[in-house]
Amino acid sequence: MMNWLKNIPTEKYWDYFILAARFLLGWTFLRYGYSKLTGGQFGVSEEELLTPLQDLSLLQISWYLFNHQPFKAVIGVMQFICGTLLIVNRTAIIGAFMFLPLVATILVIDLTVMPSAFKIAFAWRLSFYLLLDFLILWHYRERMETVWTAVWQNVTTKFSYSLWMYALLPLAAVVLEIIGILPKVTVNVITNPSGILNSIHDTVDMIQHLL
Hints:
Elements: H1 2-6, H2 10-37, H3 46-49, H4 58-66, H5 71-87, H6 92-113, H7 116-139, H8 141-152, H9 163-167, H10 169-191, H11 196-210
Helix pairs in contact: 2-5, 2-7, 5-6, 6-7, 10-11
């Protein structure tokens, strides 16, 4: 038995460790995502709903807010997708990248709303998860070199522009913002003709605010 273990390359131990890390992170997110999609995790009891706001903890208030849709469903779906991507070999790198902002956000939320005793426990646990995720990305670093080079090196516009064109960028941004407002104004005019003047007034006020 020992001779068989000695014949296994060190790289294979490390590769299996990364596989186990991927499974741990993926399965954890799958469980939490499934729980959110099936009505679990967030929410408060009937007794807590009848309690004055000032008497509730920050955790209870947060769990009440997080239980509303579409927030709960979106987070659940994102965790479920991320967990699946981490476990599947072809998509492991994508899942590892997706895991970083999700778990970092969860960590910040937990440090904000959790009681002191829970803060320490969750800080250690989620920090360990982040470490595992960085190790996964490090393990596959050779496969990411091409993407890294394409994203970070020689990235520029397809055409060159003069300095005055760059100076006009704030004005171009304002024009884009106005274009984004026009559909809302159009819908308001169609659905509420009597409110045309109010819509125009609101649009003018918004444009003045932007300028």
